Amino acid sequence: MRTAVRKPASRAPRATRAPAGTGRVKLRLTVNGRAASVSVPPMKRLLDVLRQDLSLTGSKEGCGEGECGACSVLLDGVLVNSCLVPAVQCDGRRVTTVEGLGHGAALGVLQRAFVEFGGAQCGICTPGMLVAAHALIAANPGRVPRDAEVRDALAGNLCRCTGYQKIVDAVRAAAREQGARPSKPRAGARAAPEREAAPGRKSTRGRKTAAARARGRKSAAERTRGRKTPADRAREGSR
Prior knowledge:
alpha/beta, DNA polymerase, domain 1, six-stranded mixed beta sheet, elongated
């Protein structure tokens, strides 16, 4: 899968300065539906604010460069890499982390699907995968995204454990459980394959089975039965 870097949209900071000499700003933001207030250095990363100041450790740091997607959160409903977002840009804004996808101690539909389909293994990438998948389902209400759509939406989230297919299956199952209808291919578009061939193996699509080849040979023999070959016609001409 290709990687994609999500960069937050620029926005003028509205934070208020803390007392002189502290080098901090006071931020007021809404995190998972609850008001929060922190006093932090203006360029402190949103990821660190969530983990260190707000004790929301669900978001993980994988690369710290916006490449792996493990720290993905929603900022005003837009998917961003929190390791790239300065805290000062979050004043007065809404942040949704993986902790906000459940219902208290109960898992949400998407989280349960990841457990049931084996989409969560080591757990480092899982929070970002869940947030990105949540954004995809929320942006496509009433329908189940195709495999190709799920893979495209999760292109910025890297996983080294599952091989992705279990994650794709979990996302589609969650969308289906929420009452969505399967997507239909666009007119003129080629349907994406449900599963990719394993590395090193060629696709078997379009190949004939041994039985089909045998039937083909038998049919050919029946069609040519009784026909004269060029050699037969040559012998008759020499008589």
